[in-house]
Design brief:
Blueprint lengths: L9 H17 L4 H15 L1 H7 L5 H30 L4 H6 L1 H15 L6 H13 L1 H7 L4 H35 L2
Helix pairs in contact: 1-7, 1-8, 1-9, 2-4, 2-8, 3-4, 6-7, 7-9, 8-9
Length: 182
């Protein structure tokens, strides 16, 4: 049976969409901002097929859907690269530099995924920060200052980190409480 190859972590949709929406609403939506937003969303959507290929969804999922997952990854990554390249063709140096932060965080997130650490508290915080950091180049492309774009990304990243730590703390407290009951 073919599985859906869309990200299963529903909170991640908010982690990527809300910072992007904030900078797009605050700025002026133009060609570069749209292209970068599409590129970010394509890269985001590549997570689930990559998880299938790496076996994070089980060996059966990899066996049943691995070829389709690979096709999705190739298409989504190609679209992300093409969108980013098209946005940067005539871009000023500020926008070209602004893509460095999300690319660096994406590399870090990829290493965590490869190591199977993406579901740890620190892994979830790094991934949330990666998603929030995409607001930096999109905000700059929408005409916001680098400082404003970074501020938006930092606010969303800190909020996600606090939410992640809070949820993890509640889960741990519940487990400890259950283990102490007679």
């Amino acid at each position: 049976m073919a599985r859906k190859l869309l990200p299963r972590e529903h909170g991640a949709y908010a982690e990527v969409l809300l910072p992007l929406a904030a900078v797009l609403i605050a700025g002026e939506i133009g060609r570069a901002a749209i292209l970068l937003t599409v590129a970010v969303l394509c890269a985001f959507l590549a997570h689930e097929p990559l998880s299938v290929l790496l076996g994070r969804r089980g060996e059966r999922a990899r066996a049943d859907d691995g070829r389709r997952a690979l096709r999705w990854i190739v298409g989504l990554v190609a679209a992300a690269v093409a969108g980013t390249a098209a946005a940067l063709v005539d871009a000023d140096p500020t926008l070209r530099v602004a893509v460095i932060a999300p690319l660096g965080f994406a590399l870090w997130s990829g290493l965590l995924l490869r190591a199977g650490q993406e579901r740890t508290t620190s892994g979830e915080i790094v991934i949330a920060t990666t998603l929030a950091s995409t607001a930096i180049p999109v905000g700059v492309a929408a005409g916001l200052s680098v400082a404003t774009s970074v501020a938006v990304a930092v606010v969303w990243a800190v909020g996600a980190a606090l939410a992640t730590a809070t949820v993890r703390g509640i889960i741990l407290a519940a487990k400890l409480t259950r283990s102490w009951q007679p």
